[in-house]
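User: Reviewer 2 asked us to show a designed sequence for the structure in our supplementary figure. I'm pasting the structure tokens here. Could you produce the per-position amino acids so we can include them in the response letter?
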């Protein structure tokens, strides 16, 4: 009896006596298909989310609302000059243009050499991007070091023809950046090296931290171009006193920056120090210097990367403390003194006294004046030695000085 019962039980497991076996197998197949389809749907949703996140980060990093000008070269060497504009609603590749002139905003060329200076980045975003420093020493392209000429002006550049003559024929060795009052449009011809070189700007007030912000904004925009190696700050009243080749070689071959920094014990130096900057800045570290600086790329990256000391100066260096005269000299003296020569390459005449230097007009322009600036009978430190060339630029010169200066360029300044 036991054996028969066991036999019937075995047949119940292995035999065809279970009537719903086919239905169970069908349910198993349907369950598997349901799980499979659900997995595909979830995968597509996740992929869409990741792609959206990447695009948003790309827009932040490569900026939005940027007008990109693309140029396709025709068979005869002429430029087609087609224009593409990207907005938040369009992909970065310019779909409105033909395939040959399409701009890939994620390409190395666009990343390393941004040609259009218009962007929608805030200062915070701009300084973050400009502070990115490659760890790899080699560049993925043939790098020709450039000098970035950064002009800080309220409006027009009255000495523009002099600078255009200075730059002529040296296009591959320099970049130009112009910071003006917001809304001002620099009126130059399309053939000028200043054409299209205005950066997004903000209001500036003399003697306030806003002036320092403008300087750092110029530095940050210039740092986006990876070929820029040296950075010189100039005003609309500055002139070059040597030709481009001399200026370029002097700066590119220097192992130091040219940021004037000295300890002034008077009320115009240490007298402007605010004890509320303690314990971060001590009076013995306080320095003063000319606003008109020149520096190398590594030092410029340190300057735009700083947040802590900029906030201190914004809070505690208020009139009669002037951030443009103290921030860079103090900051560099504290942390990067070995990278600096502690002198400026921009000559200025303070012999008249007062809060502003002397201004030179047409009646003051002589060959002797320019020669005295070029060779002022002193020696200045340069790398491990000294040089009789101390100043490459000079200020202040008004608009009336343009014509007599142009008459001296070939004979005295040699350009």
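Assistant: Here is a per-position design you can include in the supplement:
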């Amino acid at each position: 009896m036991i054996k028969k019962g066991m036999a019937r039980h075995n047949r119940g497991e292995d035999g065809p006596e279970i009537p719903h076996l086919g239905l169970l197998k069908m349910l198993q197949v349907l369950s598997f298909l349901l799980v499979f389809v659900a997995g595909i749907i979830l995968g597509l949703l996740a992929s869409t989310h990741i792609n959206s996140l990447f695009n948003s980060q790309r827009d932040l990093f490569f900026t939005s609302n940027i007008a990109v000008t693309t140029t396709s070269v025709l068979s005869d060497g002429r430029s087609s000059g087609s224009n593409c504009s990207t907005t938040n609603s369009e992909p970065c590749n310019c779909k409105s243009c033909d395939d040959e002139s399409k701009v890939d905003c994620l390409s190395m060329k666009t990343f390393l050499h941004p040609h259009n200076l218009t962007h929608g980045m805030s200062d915070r975003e701009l300084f973050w991007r400009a502070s990115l420093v490659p760890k790899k020493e080699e560049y993925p392209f043939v790098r020709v070091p450039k000098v970035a000429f950064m002009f800080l002006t309220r409006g027009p550049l009255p000495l523009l023809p002099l600078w255009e003559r200075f730059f002529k024929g040296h296009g591959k060795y320099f970049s130009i950046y112009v910071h003006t009052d917001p809304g001002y449009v620099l009126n130059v011809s399309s053939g000028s090296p200043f054409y299209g070189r205005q950066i997004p700007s903000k209001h500036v007030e003399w003697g306030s931290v806003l002036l320092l912000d403008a300087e750092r904004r110029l530095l940050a925009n210039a740092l986006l171009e990876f070929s820029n190696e040296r950075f010189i700050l100039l005003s609309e009243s500055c002139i070059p006193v040597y030709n481009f080749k001399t200026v370029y070689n002097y700066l590119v071959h220097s192992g130091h920056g040219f940021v004037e920094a000295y300890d002034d014990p008077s009320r115009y130096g240490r007298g402007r120090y605010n004890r509320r900057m303690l314990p971060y800045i001590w009076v013995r570290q306080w320095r003063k210097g000319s606003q008109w600086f020149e520096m190398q790329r590594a030092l410029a990256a340190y300057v735009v990367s700083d947040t802590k000391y900029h906030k201190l100066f914004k809070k505690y260096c208020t009139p009669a403390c002037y951030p443009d005269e103290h921030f860079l000299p103090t900051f560099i003296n504290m942390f990067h003194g070995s990278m600096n020569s502690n002198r400026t390459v921009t000559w200025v005449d303070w012999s008249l006294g007062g809060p502003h230097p002397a201004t030179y007009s047409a009646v003051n322009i002589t060959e002797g004046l320019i020669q005295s600036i070029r060779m002022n009978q002193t020696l200045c430190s340069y790398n491990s030695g000294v040089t009789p060339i101390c100043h490459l630029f000079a200020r202040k010169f008004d608009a009336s000085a343009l014509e007599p200066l142009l008459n001296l360029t070939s004979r005295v300044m040699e350009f």
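For the response letter, you might also mention the following. Residues 1-17, 56-100 have pLDDT under 50 and may be disordered. The chain has twelve helices and eleven strands.
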